Amino acid sequence: SLVKLVTAMVTLDLVKPTDLLRVHKEATLEEPTILKAKEGEEFTVDELLIALLVYSANDAAEILADQIGQKIEGDRKIFIDLMNEKIKRLGLTNTNFANPSGIDDIRQFSTVRELSVITQYALNNYPDIAKIVKIKDYIFTKNNYHEKYSIVNWNSLIGIYPGVVGVKIGHTESSGHSTIVLSEREGEKIMIVLIG
Fold first, then answer.
1. Which of 48, 70, 127, 181 lies deepest, with the highest CB count within 10 Å?
2. Residue 8 belongs to what H/E stretch?
3. How many CA within 13 A on the CB side of residue 26?
4. CA-CA distance, 44 to 51, in Å (whole number)?
5. Percent of the chain surpassing pLDDT 70
């Protein structure tokens, strides 16, 4: 799920936070961590980014990749290609993405150092991402586009460990537990990237 930081960056490169995206059937088939959005519902990009980065929702990742891919006259694969192009522009050569959610795939890999570069770049250049990763819990109120949804941040250090302000946790069978944690205290920032 650490991949989702790049999914968020590419999303914000291509669309506005207020744009509406529709939930397609394939996204509703995702698992295990999902918002449980229903086919045909619509969410703003900002709402999907909150579900993506706070709750690590795989369906949100797929909605973003598919719908934004279509908006730029392509598809999900074009979006993933842009994720890989993004990290190449950062000079990273030991990272590759095969999907927008971080689900195990032999073609998907990274290193602790490169994930730290990605994280620093995301937090320094995307204020929306820096703001979202700090959210402890969130309620999507029912409206004309979707039902009510409640989520919590899987990063249990937020609000517990002094100064923790995010960033992202993840887990898959192949990679084990992973986390990127940023803490700010007395004007100093410390970031830890831990894989496996």
1. 48
2. helix 4-14
3. 9
4. 11
5. 100
